[in-house]
Amino acid sequence: MLHYLTIRLSKMSKHKSLEKEKVFAEQLNGRFAMVGFIAAVGAYLTTGQIIPGIV
After folding, report:
1. 8-12 long-range CB contacts below 8 Å, 24 or more apart?
2. Do residues 9 and 19 touch, judged by C-beta distance below 8 A?
């Protein structure tokens, strides 16, 4: 999907640099979301609580 999006963006010359920034921002957002999910799973596995210290 990302490869297809990159190909589509390379064909569009009008907003090429702006679209590249959006793709980078979305990739970074996805990576941070994955790190947060792994941290939440790790916290649950180690403490047994969904939000440690609150519940």
Report:
1. none
2. yes
pLDDT value of residue 53: 80
pLDDT digits (tens, 9 = 90+) for 2-31: 666 566 656 655 566 778 899 999 999 999
Place of tokens 């907003």: 15
What is the residue-wise DSSP string for 1-55? -HHHHHHHHHH--TTHHHHHHHHHHHHHHHHHHHHHHHHHHHHHHHHS-SSTTT-
- What CA–CA distance (Å, rounded) separates 43 from 19? 36
Instruction: Confirm whether pTM is higher than 0.70.
Output: no
